[in-house]
Amino acid sequence: MKIVVSDFVEGAQTAEGVVVIIDVFRAFSVACYCLAQAPQQIIAVGAIEQALELKSARPETLLIGEREGKKLPGFDFGNSPTELASEALQGKYIAHTTHAGTQGLVNAKKAKMVLTGALVNAKATAEYIRSLRPEVVTLVRMGWKAEENTEEDDVCAQYLKSLLLGEPCVPEDIKSQLLASPCAARFLDPEQPWNPESDLHLCLDIDRFDFPVEAITRQDGTVELRRVT
Ligand SMILES: O=C(O)[C@H](CS(=O)(=O)O)OP(=O)(O)O
User: Fold this and answer.
1) Domain count along the chain
2) Distances (CA, A) of 149 to 141, 142, 160, 170, 209
3) Using 50, 70 and 90 to split pLDDT, how confident is the model at 221?
4) What atom in ligand 1 is closest to the CA of residue 98?
5) Which phi and psi (to 5°) does residue 206 adopt?
6) Domain of residue 51, residue span
């Protein structure tokens, strides 16, 4: 198995084979917390307007999204697992747009298969990929605003790589490293209430979920997120 690591939207655009679009803080942690509650449908989109169009077409659609980390005007929720983990989402329709994570999903057009990447379901994702025996796996780190590498996405890529290669790795060490890292600072800053500390802990609950998440491109270019069973 050849494992390639790349970055940002450009990395997603050229990514081949089984592609994992990684966004630990917070898009694909949020996606897992939502999917754990069995919503009817989650659609990931790049543009804010597309999310609003989905709501116009189906007014009961819940809108989740951020730019610069902050909840968007007119949206129901920010990109915050804290907000979503306590919501009753069973049977709901959801549209999700974020600054980095969902931009990667909608641009992974060369991929044979696209999966989301987060620490909360990394082991399940790696086990699933191993079962597929792919020739090429591309790990795309979306980072901060899809333009700057971040430690949490780098560490997640490394963790996935170790799991794929069957190398030893200790989730507790990853968690301690990230809790002490500058990447945790925005969740500990009282002047950034849109980044609550509880999000940090929910995103670092490593391997909490036992399902991978597949991103399936629809005809209109939006992407449906589904639990792989
Ligand atoms: O909501 C977040 O924490 C981030 C902010 S940014 O894109 O890195 O500016 O969004 P995400 O797309 O989940 O990385």
Assistant:
1) 1
2) 7, 7, 17, 22, 25
3) confident
4) 12
5) -65, 130
6) 2-227
Q: What is the CATH number of the domain that holds 206?
A: 3.90.1560.10
Residue of 21, 201, 166, 14 whose CA lies nearest to 104: 21
Q: Is 17 left (phi over 0), alpha (psi -120 to 50) or beta?
A: left
Q: What is the pTM of this model?
A: 0.97
Substitution site in 26, 82, 198 for ligand 1 pocket (most atoms within 8 Å of beta carbon): 26
Give the DSSP letter string of 22-60.
Answer: E-TTTHHHHHHHHHTT--SEEEEESSHHHHHHHHHHSTT
Distance, in Å, from the CA atom of 41 to the CA atom of 90, rounded to the nearest integer, reads: 10
Q: At what angle do helices 151-165 and 171-179 cross, to 10 degrees?
A: 170
DSSP state of 20: E
ipTM over 0.85? The verdict is yes
- The answer, yes or no, to whether any atom of ligand 1 lies below 6 A from the CB of 145, is yes
pLDDT one-digit tens code per residue, 160-196: 999 999 999 999 999 999 999 999 999 999 999 999 9
